[in-house]
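Researcher: Structure for this, please.
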Amino acid sequence: MAGKPIETYHEDGQWKSRREGSERAFQVGGTKAEQTAQGRAAAQRDGVEHIINKMDGTTGEKNSYGNDPNPPRG
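Model: Predicted structure, token format:
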């Protein structure tokens, strides 16, 4: 499963974090900020992208901690 992005999302009244494509969250509960920190730590540890969704399910923010497939041009 390594290499898949980490997703932080809101479901059933709780903030959760999971690997993209997985049905089961590896971390549940707390505030959005607390859950975002958990997801960020997992993404940094694994060197993958962290996707933070808004409460309505749309993507709010993406952060890459590994090989960025779309690095900034400069």
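Researcher: Any notable elements?
Model: Residues 5 and 20 are 5 Å apart (CA to CA). DSSP finds one helix and five strands in the chain.
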